[in-house]
Amino acid sequence: MSSHKPIVVVTGGAGFIGSHTVDALIEAGNRVVVLDDFRTGKRANLARWLAPEHRFDGAHAALEIVTCDVAHGIFAALEPITSRYGRVERIVHLAAQVSVVASIANPLVDMSVNYGGTLHVLEYARACNVSKVAFASSAAVYGDVTEMPVAETTPCRPVSPYGIDKYASELALDYYASVHNVPTTALRFFNVYGPRQDPTSPYSGVISIFADRARAGALLTIFGDGSQTRDFVYVGDVVRALLAAVADGNTRTVANVGTGREITVLELAQTIVALGGGASTIAHAPARGGEILKSRANVDRLRDRFGVVAQTPLVDGLRATLA
């Protein structure tokens, strides 16, 4: 049985950003294979596509989900699918250990999952002639910088194992592109937020945690004095960047994904409290190690190379997240 739709693999496709990416890829007419080990991903995030008619053997074949730890390789997981439907056309590589705090506590696990997982994806792409790999990198590769906004030309001096592994993964992408002709793009995400971000994890994004607590009228805790700034970008804008990157012919490209605007964490907390009805109060706790103090993206390259500009105002994105 052959496929007339291109097959796109999304590693970590049951996660927060991954599931939104799957939605957009299927809506754009692709067959999607999700590889996820479900340590943090949730099948519920893909619920709309789990009906029989959306499976690969259904009438409108769109989605296949394979339980797979990407850090242990992806050849075996994908072989039954490609033998039946043809080769994988493109890969969006999102599977990762995403906590800076956890990476500091256990750098060996972080390296195995993040750098090791990327190498397994790139080896598959090389061996199977994949047309494009789009990789979720992070603003953590920059470390603490003094000049704002942060451009892609800013020297990378990561201050956490997480940032080191993301930067090492970028170097691996560049190697596979230059030596093995695997077309690659690395997108350096700034602070992504939106619906489906898990607020129950202590390592989750600050917006999802604040929003969850504001809905309950509970205390919002800021680590440090709250003067640290972040460039918060809505998940829908991130997905548009990913789809543009995985579909185009650019290779050996690195681009920031943010809004080009920054807000202090204290201002963020105050805004969420107001949107949540004002019942919550704000407290402070000691600052956490390995976290950067200031962050704002230069997003010119994202606009110029990929035609993508973040469109969602922070207040609108916060309302959608609170809802």
Description of the structure:
Helices cover 37% and strands 17% of the residues. By secondary structure, it is α/β, with parallel strands linked by helices. The protein has one domain (7-194, 233-259, 297-311): NAD(P)-binding Rossmann-like Domain (Rossmann fold, 3-Layer(aba) Sandwich). It has a seven-stranded parallel β-sheet, with helices on both faces. Helix 5 (161-180) links the parallel strand 5 (132-138) and strand 6 (184-189). Helix 1 crosses helix 7 (235-247) and helix 4 (107-127) packs parallel to helix 5 (161-180). The radius of gyration is 19 Å and the shape is globular.
Chain-wise SSE layout:
Elements: E1 7-11, H1 16-27, E2 31-36, E3 63-67, H2 75-85, E4 90-93, H3 100-105, H4 107-127, E5 132-138, H5 161-180, E6 184-189, E7 191-193, H6 206-215, E8 220-223, E9 229-230, E10 232-234, H7 235-247, E11 253-257, E12 263-264, H8 265-275, E13 282-285, H9 300-306, H10 314-322
Parallel strand pairs: 1-2, 1-4, 2-3, 4-5, 5-6, 6-11, 7-10, 8-13
Antiparallel strand pairs: 9-12
Helix pairs in contact: 1-7, 4-5, 6-8
Summarize the structure.
The chain is an alpha/beta fold and about 325 residues long.
